[in-house]
Amino acid sequence: MTYRRLLESILAHALSFIESLDEGPVSATASLADLRRRLGHPLADKGMDATHVIDELVADVKGGVLGTSGGRFFGFVVGGSVPAALAADWLTSTWDQPAALFASGPAVAVIEEICGQ
Does residue 62 sit in helix, strand or coil? Predict the structure, then answer.
């Protein structure tokens, strides 16, 4: 499994979601029972291809992800997923740096320090 194939798959899922925000439902279309049934299944005994895991996750949450990052959502003030914020979040996960100490994540430790000021 290459990271490229997995990240391209995730990109396709992310773009599909983002591109549906202007037209798709803003509220949930799946019931609590549906989501519990889909997400509460037993995990596989053996490892699975990462792309398959992501595809399964996307299918299982269908109808249970609110359109909070779209312009038609007026429910809660939860922030927003503007392009720069989404990209920075992806990089944060990719870099996977512990920010507690300079020795364990120099750049992110300084970012945390500056944000705290």
Answer: coil
Return all residues near 76 (Cβ < 8 A) that are at least 6 apart: 68
Q: In the chain, at which residue ranges do the beta strands (DSSP E only) sit?
A: none
- Length in residues, the chain: 117
| Buried b or exposed e, range 77-108, using 16+ CB within 10 angstroms | eeeebeeeeeeeeeeeeeeeeebeeeeebeeb
Single pTM value for the model: 0.78
CA 25 to chain centroid: 18
Residue carrying structure tokens 């609110």: 66
- Distance (Å, whole) CA 6 – CA 117: 37
Query: If the chain, 117 residues long, is cut into consecutive pieces of 10 residues, what is the mean pLDDT of each piece?
Result: 88 93 90 96 91 94 88 70 83 89 92 90
**What CA–CA distance (Å, rounded) separates 97 from 88?**
13
